[in-house]
Amino acid sequence: MRSVPSQRTASEPEPALAGFGRYAGPATLILASLADGAKHGYALTKDIESFSGVRLAPGTLYEALARLQAQGLIEPVESHDRRRPYRLTAVGAQALQAHLAAQRRIADLGLHRLARSWGIA
């Protein structure tokens, strides 16, 4: 018997990153980077590039940071120079965990279907 992922109903809350639309990718990368500790913009771009191979353009990075901060998923850290570091909030950590778990379920399903239909392991 196959299990079918449950569908979200209108009365259920929307996952935190679902409202990001095309910015969900950058938001996920930023939150994953901040899960390792506070970073400023340049450090974020270098870390993201090192673990994902993706280089976020400055406009994309700072727009996503503003959206994440507005949702309470990240917060600025006091700095004594011109850099503005950010850190993950508890709400942000929970949102990232839920989002990554959902993405893992999708990836596992896709890999299973490829293996079954195409013989690709």
Key features of this structure:
mainly alpha, Arc Repressor Mutant, subunit A, two-stranded antiparallel ribbon, 4 helices, 2 strands, disordered N terminus
Summarize the structure.
The chain has 121 residues and is mainly alpha-helical. It has 4 helices and 2 strands.
SSE order and pairing:
Elements lengths: L23 H11 L6 H12 L5 H13 L3 E3 L9 E3 L1 H29 L3
Antiparallel strand pairs: 1-2
Helix pairs in contact: 1-2
Task: Tell me what you see in this structure.
The structure is a single chain. This protein is mainly α. The two termini are 22 Å apart. It is 54% helix and 5% strand. Residues 1-6 and 8-14 have low confidence and may be disordered. It has one domain (19-118): Orthogonal Bundle (Arc Repressor Mutant, subunit A). The chain has a two-stranded antiparallel sheet with strand order 1-2.
Radius of gyration, in Å, reads 17 Å
Largest sheet, in brief, is: 2 strands, antiparallel
CATH T-level topology: Arc Repressor Mutant, subunit A
Poorly predicted runs? 1-6, 8-14
User: What is the end-to-end distance?
Assistant: 22 Å
Count of discrete domains? 1
CATH class: Mainly Alpha
At the fourth level of CATH, the homologous superfamily is: Winged helix-like DNA-binding domain superfamily/Winged helix DNA-binding domain
- SS strand fraction: under 5%
Mean pLDDT: 87
Indicate the CATH architecture. Answer: Orthogonal Bundle
Structural class: mainly alpha
* Helical amount: 40-55%
Give the topology string: H per helix, E per strand. Answer: HHHEEH
